[in-house]
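User: I'm preparing a small set of examples for a lab meeting where we compare how different chains pack in three dimensions. I only have the primary sequence for this one, and I'd like the structure in token form so I can line it up with the others. Please keep the answer compact; I'll paste it straight into my notes.
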Amino acid sequence: MPGTWAIIVAAGRGSRLGTEIPKQYLRLGKHSILTHTLKKFLEHPLIDKILVVIHPDDNQLFQDSCPDYLDKVLLEQGGKTRQISVRNGLKALAVHTPDCVLIHDAARPFVSADVISILASTAQGGKACIAATPVVDSLKSASETEDSIKVKKSIKRDGLWHAQTPQAFPFTIIQKAHQSVSDQENHTDDAAIAETCGIDITLVPSDRNNIKITTTEDLRLAEVMIASSITKRSIMESRTGLGYDVHCFEAGDHVTLCGVDIPHTRKLKGHSDADVGLHALTDALLGALCEGDIGTHFPPSDPQWKDAMSDQFLAFAKNRVTKRSGKIIHVDVTLICEKPKIGPHREAMVARMAEILDISPSRVSIKATTSEKLGFTGREEGIAAQAVATIQIPAED
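Assistant: Understood. Below is the structure token output for the 397-residue chain.
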């Protein structure tokens, strides 16, 4: 499938850390380092698919340390160098014809969502780019002997940057670049390979938290950082969103309300299936997230949504909550109409909405009322719906 893919390079042995297993499979808090890294990309809205390049001997290690990702990522075998591993990954992706790709080290679990966003957007715009931080420490060139290390000269740090990953590229550009270099050159990152082909590289400012875990000291720092992030994530804030929708009747034999087809003398008119209940609730969830409304993400002017089932709109909103590490606490939908009668179908509606949202039916409320023969609903010209959604997401500064 076209789109934006991430290649996570996880084939290294991590010899400098001196552990029995490769560093990417070490525990960091409750999960492996690789799991933390995969989570950052899997939950990012601009990343469509993930391919993980692992060592040929690490299949069982991957299964044991990343059990939640076995059916969510593709696997490819790496080679004896990082360069070969990335090339293998690019070759495996070619059949999927991605538009662009982000290449990231498995041992960098702290990359921020904002950096991923900027890199992905830049690559989608046709430019190669890498995460980087400016050099802030004084630099010295040195000579080493058995007894000492001596300074030879100072080096100006102006214009110098520390290269990090992710490194993002339009797919065909980096694929051709990798194909043009030999294994003997052994470049240490993909930007260096792109440079040999004359490709301009844009720097995207990252932060120093995006460390690569290489030494025991790095691992200790990472443990402190993950403990701090867990504490921060445990502080949640509640959000409430409101939604409203209305559709008029037209000729037909049923209406779809809250995901359930109900026999009726007419149907609701709309570009999709015109499910006012799910439309209102979709807007309520998006409103709680401050992420626009249903028309922002599924414009009626787009022909692909003609006659679409509205459960996919609600599932999209639910997934946006999940991607923000949030939780749906309660939803409440009120249907306003004279007919059809809602009571006989309420239980099925509650069950269907709970299924779409992946929450307990005890967190779903559906009510119905009339407008006492007043207004367009009273004249039986259409149906209106109001919705309230309560969610929890990690507290923002």
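A couple of notes for your slides: Residues 216-233 form the longest helix (18 residues). Residues 4-233 form a domain with the Spore Coat Polysaccharide Biosynthesis Protein SpsA; Chain A fold (CATH 3.90.550.10).

User: Perfect, thanks.
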